[in-house]
Specification:
It contains 15 helices and twelve strands. With 433 residues, it is an alpha/beta fold. The longest helix is centred in the last third of the chain and has 29 residues.
Length: 433
């Protein structure tokens, strides 16, 4: 599948500018709506999306990623979408996710806190389940009793290994800072986060039209609750798991809001090991030799990517007036597939790869994309794209502190150090006299 998909031939777009009304009055037309849809992919997906968004912000003049009309996020894409809707820039997110400085509060270790509450629930239920399983086995030890007893004991297996409540707590604090909100209804722009109802299997969209009372951080926790890793999230008596189980992007949520230009980022694609080998990559082992995690990872990627491809084809028919631009990694990129996200150096490198890949996408398809972007007041910065020396650090122009509490603490510390230095200088001058 191509890295970017453009649809919308014969698009009828609303042009910027003013129209003369009777009497010489002028009517100002609202600019065409622009939206962003971000897929999931765990911490790795969030890192890739930050790099891709930095490239878009750096290379497209007239695009303000914090001032779009609609944001849609699924799983880890929900983290990024909610941050953008709350005014957190891609450069600030880079410091949040990737850097190891004062702003780097969201370390990957936050995803690996054991689900002690879930373990405790299973331990409490275990004696009764063992007794029931024993009785089932003794009633019919050579036939159905074995199957029934195993099915009963399976209820003692935790539904998740890690505690995703830590994610909710962290985001609630992040969105409580001045100028931000944890309430869908108070956001200046539309934010939609998609999860899957465990009991019905249906997608549920949290946002301004539905479940708006649910805190944004709680909706993100539900949307990113990947079965097996995190327990289902209880909200108003229902239980929710990862929104990617139904669709990868849920781009139709934005398109149904009337979006005319939709930017999409999907960080997970199947790894083409044979193509990587032909290109001279040093990894020569087959994925089957990498153990169960690699096999399951490749399977998951293949499933969600094939569904997304089908969805993109449907969007082109169902929303002929919309233009859709999709950005993805290379299928031959072994670094994206075998990455260790718990290494800060690798996180920086993976984000830089996403930055460079997105820039290359823009260069390759600039001819086809430029007219679509111009309709929405966006132009391609060819001067920056043609600069082969431009790296991700040049796009990190937003120096605003992500955490005001840390900024205030740093200011206080600087003042203390300055006073100490001035005191020492005064004592030295006095002594010299």
């Amino acid at each position: 599948m191509p890295d970017e998909t453009a649809s919308g031939r014969g698009t009828r777009t609303r042009k910027r500018g003013r129209t003369r009304l009777p009497g010489g009055r002028r009517a100002v037309h609202r600019p065409s709506e622009i939206g962003l849809a971000l897929a999931g992919g765990g911490p790795l997906g969030g890192i890739y999306e930050v790099g891709a968004l930095l490239a878009l912000a750096d290379s497209l003049d007239g695009l303000d990623l914090n001032a779009l009309d609609v944001y849609v996020g699924v799983s880890s894409g929900g983290f990024v979408a909610a941050a953008l809707a709350n005014g957190i820039s891609p450069a600030q997110m880079y410091r949040l996710f990737i850097e190891d400085g004062a702003d780097a509060a969201m370390k990957p270790e936050i995803f690996l806190r054991p689900a002690f509450a879930e373990f405790g629930r299973c331990l409490v239920a275990l004696p009764a389940l063992v007794m029931r399983a024993t009785m089932q086995y003794l009633r019919d030890p050579f036939h159905r009793g074995v199957i029934e007893s195993f099915a009963t004991l399976a209820k003692a297996i935790p539904t998740g290994v890690f505690d995703n409540g830590a994610i909710d707590d962290f985001l609630a604090r992040l969105f409580a800072a001045p100028g931000r909100t944890n309430d869908f209804r108070k956001l200046p722009r539309k934010l939609f986060l998609v999860a899957t109802n465990l009991d019905t299997g249906a997608p549920v969209t949290f946002g301004p039209h539905h479940q708006a009372h649910v805190p944004i951080s709680r909706a993100i926790e539900a949307s990113s609750a990947l079965p097996g890793l995190f327990p289902p999230v209880a909200i108003d008596g229902d239980f929710y798991v990862d929104g990617a189980l139904n669709k990868t992007l849920h781009a139709s949520v934005a398109l149904d809001e009337g979006v005319r230009l939709l930017l999409c980022v999907n960080p997970l694609v199947p790894f083409d090991a044979s193509s990587a080998l032909r290109r001279g990559h040093r990894r020569k082992d087959r994925l089957s030799q990498g153990g169960l995690p690699l096999v399951l990872g490749q399977t998951f990627r293949a499933i969600i990517h094939s569904r997304m491809k089908v969805g993109m084809e449907k969007y082109a028919r169902q929303y002929p007036d919309a233009s859709i631009l999709l950005f993805e990694p290379d299928r031959e990129d072994a670094d994206m597939f075998f990455a260790n996200i718990f290494s800060y150096s690798q996180r920086r490198r993976l984000c830089a790869i996403a930055f460079a890949k997105t820039r290359q996408n823009l260069i390759t398809r600039a001819g086809a994309m430029a007219p679509l972007l111009r309709r929405h007041g966006i132009t391609i910065r060819h001067d920056r794209l043609n600069d082969s020396d431009r790296v991700i650090g040049m796009a990190l122009t937003d120096a605003r502190p992500l955490r005001p509490d840390v900024a205030r603490a740093n200011v206080r510390q600087t003042k203390r150090e300055l006073r100490h230095t001035l005191d020492q200088l005064e004592r030295a001058v006095t002594s010299a006299r």
